[in-house]
Amino acid sequence: MELFHNQVTRAQGCFSPRMFHRSWGIMMIQANISAPCTVLDFPTREHFARELKANHYDVVGISGIIVNLGKVQEMCRMVRELSPESVIIVGGHVAAIPNVEALVDADHIVRGEGIAWMRKYLGEDEHAPIRHPAIVSGLQERFMGARIPRRKGRTAATIIPSVGCPMGCNFCTTSSFFGGKGKFINFYASGDELFDVMCAVEAELKVHSFFVMDENFLLYRPRALRLLERMKEAGKSWDLSVFASVNAIRKYSMQELAELGVSWLWMGLESPHSSYGKLQGADLTQLTRELRENGIRVQGSTIIGLEHHTPGNITGEIEHAIGYQTDFHQFMLYTPVPGTPLYQDMAQQGRLLQNIDLADIHGQFKFNFRHAAISRDDSKRFLDWAFRRDFERNGPSLYRMCRTMLLGWRRYKDYPDPRVRARFARQMQKLRGAYNAALWAMEREFKRVNESVSEQIRSLRKEIEKESPVKARLNAALIGPVLLYLARREEKRLAKGRTYEPPTIVERTNWAAAS
Ligand code: B12
Ligand code: SF4
Questions:
Q1: How far is the CA of 180 from the centre of ligand 2 (A)?
Q2: Mutate to test the pocket of ligand 1, among 27, 67, 335 (most ligand atoms within 8 A of CB)
Q3: For 84-133, what is each residue's pLDDT tens digit?
């Protein structure tokens, strides 16, 4: 239930930022139906059983992705046993498994968008406007072994403007699940609607930062520019974390991105030799550098095991990707996932490996298909090596993002638009606080393993201390040693196999009306 530690900073040990993420799909459904409803997020078996026995549910909806098939099967079995009169509805990406009806004992399997489906099923208006719940993007955050205290407004809010993506890359499950090439479902089609939703969430959660969960947010330029207009009119100094493809980013000037508040950008950085058209013609080295110089933290995403990869060229391609020096870098195995055009192609070519557990088909383990040049076991070796190599060459992502934040501060601290200045001032406040203390600790921890990375961290810390000679130094001196102690303790715990699990969360709506 973690993003970074699972698929981005997984080789970064105690430097990997840790946090859990809620299940937004079912939160969205709950917020948009008027029936009494309970959401159980991350239930244990015991909790699920208790809930089924404590209340009579007409409908039990279960959400899962493909890797969760086993859990979904077990939950259906439990419902039949403990609440035999309930109707079972299964939705989410697990529904994309071919012939899932035969694998899961459910009354309805819902493919694609679930809000409209559930409203229709309950006899409500399926076309009514979408009500956006106030969603905190991450919970139980940990940072170098320290649990970050919860404070209202500290963590970004998640905003979900749409589902699906019209680009239709053949391997992409999100795109195919919501209609494929040329199709997607907009919850908020205009910048005005989006602005209103963001204001409401801002007021409820007291946030300045938003994680915008839209596969290609910058692709819809009129919506983004209208949002910018409204932000300017209302003096909103917001930070936005967005996903965007290179061709979409190219439609904006750096000033537009800065004024829109884009502070974190997740983008595909596939091999220059791959056939995925969205990168063609773009000079990625220049683009990623320019983004970072403008204070935009870049999270690159690179696919390992594309068709043209061989044991002879793959390490060079990984080195090339790492050379972009992004703040964060996700590597994923090229994976034909059930439900995608790529899966169909591979099946037709007879290249899918047999007897692979669906729980292992997710891109962070081993190939599930016969690659022309790379074996299943080697796919894991190359994947693991990519994460390790990125960490070795570029250092911890925490350090890398501090470097980008400082660049942004230097470039925009005197910018004419006060909203932009305020945004970078907030970042500088973080830099001179806990982040500078973290750099102090990282510098010492790295001395033992990589002198040159330690030296780079040190010189960044010195630069931050030039900007803030008193506070930054004081924080490094006072909090740095504590973080170093906690980080070393965390490293030992992780080495012993410590893992973290999200808590079970129970949320009831329209509940009084039921009693
Ligand atoms: C946030 C997210 C996460 C969070 C999960 C948080 C959580 N508590 O579940 C984190 C970062 C932890 C994560 C982890 C992983 N994820 Co993820 N994740 C996403 C992401 C980016 C957004 C999901 C989301 O909230 N979308 C917005 C909501 C509104 O859409 P939705 O969830 O699809 O829900 C809608 C419908 O599906 C449907 N619906 C959903 N549930 C239900 C239930 C019922 C009853 C009904 C009727 C309808 C319904 O209605 C909803 C509203 O329209 C998606 C990509 C994407 N853009 O969707 C990938 C995605 C879901 N993840 C994916 C994968 C592979 C993983 C990992 C396996 C990655 C890995 N290798 O480690 C892990 C596994 C986690 C796990 N054990 O379940 C794949 C799933 C592929 C598949 N076909 O199954 C996706 C699609 C990404 C991709 N394109 O490959 N992930
Ligand atoms: S651009 Fe990204 S989200 Fe869109 S279809 Fe391609 S891989 Fe999927």
A1: 10
A2: 67
A3: 999 999 999 999 999 999 999 999 999 999 999 999 999 999 999 999 99
Predicted confidence (pLDDT) at residue 515 exceeds the cutoff of 60? no
Which residue, among 237, 190, 295, has the nearest Cα to 419 in the 3D structure? 237
The pLDDT of residue 249: 95
Residue 61 has pLDDT above 80, yes or no: yes
Ligand 2 centre to CA of 214 (Å) is: 10
Q: Which atom of ligand 2 is nearest to the CA of 174?
A: 8
Residue with tokens 């990282």: 442
**What CA–CA distances, in Å, run from 237 to 142, 234, 297, 314?**
26, 9, 17, 42
Q: Which residues line ligand 1 (CB under 6 A)?
A: 1-3, 6-7, 21-26, 28-29, 61-63, 65-68, 89, 91-93, 96, 110, 113-115, 117-118, 160, 163, 172-174, 213, 215, 337, 339, 362-364
Q: What ligand 2 atom has the least distance to the C-alpha of 245?
A: 1
Name 439's Cβ contacts closer than 8 Å, sequence gap at least 6: 399, 402, 457, 458, 460, 461, 464, 476
Q: pLDDT digit string (tens) for 191-208?
A: 999 999 999 999 999 999
